[in-house]
Amino acid sequence: xxxxxxxxxxxxxxxxxxxxxxxxxxxxxxxxxxxxxxxxxxxxxxxxxxxxxxxxxxxxxxxxxxxxxxx
Length: 71
Fold this sequence. Notes:
InterPro entries: Ribosomal_mL41. By secondary structure, this protein is mostly loops. Helices cover 0% and strands 11% of the residues.
């Protein structure tokens, strides 16, 4: 019997879309298809001034007395 949100717990969400499979099952095992694999092309970050890390001590919202035109 398939698992649906009617038969599962309250926090279950099945989703409505799938990514394509990256391969197929054969008698010799699972064969990957390199044309279907996800490829992420990152830009060159040479000389990039910003850093990817944000400290946990940074407040989530600006202070209430924040005035963007004060600078």
